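ARCHIVE CARD
Drawer: 12
Card no.: 0347
Subject: one protein chain, sequence and derived structure
Cross-reference: see card 0346
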Amino acid sequence: MVVLGLAGAHAFGMEVVKYGTFETNVRDTNSYSNPFQDVTLTATITSPSSQGYSIRGFYDGNSTWRVRFMPDETGTWTYTCTFSDGSPGQSGSFQCVAGNLHG
């Protein structure tokens, strides 16, 4: 595993320091006339203490959407990304570890 600070994590099973940036990419190969308005990506992120957060993703071009999040609790976080039109999303987890960043 890799410990990341400000850069963030981009894949399953990665580690992110507390108050660092977790980021994941979600692909959707459907064709939209305006992907910025025709579909939304929502991530449901759950903390180790079961606190839930709903985060909107954003379209970043080339059939790729991104979700960014700053964890504020150490431990295992889980997430599920879903598209508003029912296109396949993704699920995963990451580890939040102690660091020297301040929230």
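Annotation on reverse: The first strand starts at residue 3 and ends at 4. Residues 1-11 have pLDDT under 50 and may be disordered.
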